[in-house]
């Protein structure tokens, strides 16, 4: 997840035009997600992704990143947290609208790789407070927003972390990869 130095994942109106991405980051993220077979989204982020990624790689001017990510997106299992999409039946997609802790823990027990959470600050807040996040993969952007949508808000319990890796990108973004120290 991209985050500002002061802990925001988006501006006050959801703006993300401050996020720095380049080919180096795209390549790194592409390699990392290629080892994963499941993606978790909140409803709004899922709908945004679903409107773009299934066909992004088919466009005549598609970048290597768009082609690769589109292929991955189409085959990845999507998990969507949504109270409004109840009963919706979508291919290769699981909708979770209640019993969040039980449903996520059930999915974690199934065969497959890790589940990566993409964006979705509201979903992230719910997962943090249910102690369902096993690690944080953050891309700290060199900017202080001063206000916006925070990544960490109303945290019920302290969450201890162990730093696994860091990486500095040429554009100034720093990746921090933590595991939750239970």
UniProtKB/TrEMBL annotation:
SUPFAM superfamilies: Dihydrofolate reductase-like. Pfam families: RibD_C. Residues 2-173 form the Bacterial bifunctional deaminase-reductase C-terminal domain. PANTHER family: 2,5-DIAMINO-6-RIBOSYLAMINO-4(3H)-PYRIMIDINONE 5'-PHOSPHATE REDUCTASE, DIHYDROFOLATE REDUCTASE FAMILY PROTEIN (AFU_ORTHOLOGUE AFUA_8G06820). This is Dihydrofolate reductase family protein. It comes from Mucilaginibacter panaciglaebae.
């Amino acid at each position: 997840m991209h985050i500002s130095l002061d802990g925001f994942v988006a501006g006050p109106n959801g703006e993300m035009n401050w996020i720095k991405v380049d080919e180096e980051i795209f390549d790194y993220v592409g390699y990392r997600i290629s080892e994963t077979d499941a993606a978790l989204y909140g409803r709004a982020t899922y709908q945004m992704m679903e409107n773009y990624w299934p066909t992004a790689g088919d466009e005549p001017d598609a970048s290597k990143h768009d082609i690769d990510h589109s292929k991955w997106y189409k085959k990845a299992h999507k998990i969507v947290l949504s109270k409004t999409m109840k009963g919706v039946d979508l291919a290769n997609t699981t909708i979770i609208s209640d019993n969040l802790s039980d449903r996520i823990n059930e999915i974690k027990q199934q065969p497959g790789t890790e589940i990566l959470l993409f964006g979705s600050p509201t979903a992230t807040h719910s997962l943090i407070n249910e102690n369902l996040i096993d690690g944080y993969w953050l891309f700290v952007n060199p900017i202080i927003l001063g206000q916006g949508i925070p990544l960490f808000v109303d945290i019920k319990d302290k969450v201890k972390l162990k730093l696994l890796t860091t990486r500095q990108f040429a554009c100034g973004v720093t990746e921090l990869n933590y595991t939750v120290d239970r």
